[in-house]
Amino acid sequence: LEAEAAGLPFSSGGGAGEAAKKKSAQAKKIASKKRKEEEELERQKMMMSRKKRKLLEKMMYSNKQKSEEAAKLRSKRRKLEKEGQK
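Below the sequence we write its predicted structure tokens.
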């Protein structure tokens, strides 16, 4: 009704459009924050010695591998639980 009073055309998804705008704005904010963190990490890595930089890269690689394995096991567990409920 407020949009109608303001002279805007009526649309059935009026509220959904605003929610979509909020989600996209929030997604942009999160992406921007993530990009800034990555850039800061790259700057810090430039200042590190080769030995420390390589150690950090190995640690990050192993952490990524562990998290991927854990995610795979979680999805496998969810799949088995879903089949068990049927």
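The helical segments are 2-5, 14-47, 50-85.
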